[in-house]
Amino acid sequence: MSTSIPDHRLSRRALLGAGAAIGGTAIAGPWPMAFAQTSGPQAGLRIAALGWACAQTILALGVVPLVIPEIERYGRLVVEPPVPPSVQEVGLRSEPNLELLQSFAPDIIVIDPSIAAAVPRLKLIAPVETFTIFRPGGHPLDTARRSTLELAKRLGVQPACEAYFARFDVAMAGYREQLRGRGGKPLYLVSEIARNRALVFGPNSLYQEVLDQCGLRNAWTGQSGPWGHTSVGLEVLAAVPDARLVLMTSRVADVEALLKASPVLQTLPSLRSHRLTVLGNQFFYGGVPAAERFARLLAERLPRESHEQG
């Protein structure tokens, strides 16, 4: 991209140092970035997370909130970090149950901007912090890092945040190495294929920054909306004939059935040449944890270029 963004990549010395420093805190678990936190939030702060992006980030810092909305759907669509069994359901992301929320007596409520209109009512329950990732003209991953650090300071877990960032940078360096030499073909990053249309991710998406860091190219260079994606006709995905299609969802249970059901899909050069990579679900409104998951799954799947379908 032509605009400049901060480069958080570690030098070789810092990389080795960070790897050594966090080696003692890593724990085995279903989420590769999991770590054991040595100190909790300020004085046992009771935290309510009313959005998935803020909840994902709070969990990534090793903090367990009291409540999260739509926990079952979070598990399917956001996936990581997993929600501990102690966390309670608090209604919908768009409409949290305020009476139930008040009964938990939180010390602080953290929200995503999507429910900013509810702030006056939420403030009657507890102080409110808004966790922001997407800003006009901004770079989502860099904004997410800054917002995560600000939130960590507010929650009193800045050391945990710094350790998490070190782990993230080490992980990204590893994915970059795994993907070295795999940037030959541009990638169409696609989700939500339905009725001959697809959601495609562009230059202002969270994923673009991951592609840039990993030396990969985005096949979609057109305009995209404020959250980094836009809806296009499937025929548009033929504009770059040598591109690879990256399907970023697990909700298509049978990819072969999808391909057979859509005559337009069958005409795409990427699919006629079997250049298809299917990733697990991606939370494209997420922050640092979402970027790490995307990069990790790319590193796991894209190296299989010699196979017909990755």
UniProtKB/TrEMBL annotation:
UniProt entry keywords in alphabetical sequence: Ion transport, Iron, Iron transport, Membrane, Signal, Transmembrane, Transmembrane helix, Transport
Residue stretches spanning the membrane: 44-68
The keyword ATP-binding belongs to this UniProt entry's keyword annotation: no
Domain Fe/B12 periplasmic-binding, chain residue ranges per copy: 46-306
GO BP, one annotated term: iron coordination entity transport
Chief location bin: other
SUPFAM superfamilies: Helical backbone' metal receptor
UniProt subcellular location: Cell envelope
The family this protein is said to belong to: Belongs to the bacterial solute-binding protein 8 family.
Official protein name in the record: Fe/B12 periplasmic-binding domain-containing protein
Lineage: Bacteria, Pseudomonadati, Pseudomonadota, Alphaproteobacteria, Hyphomicrobiales
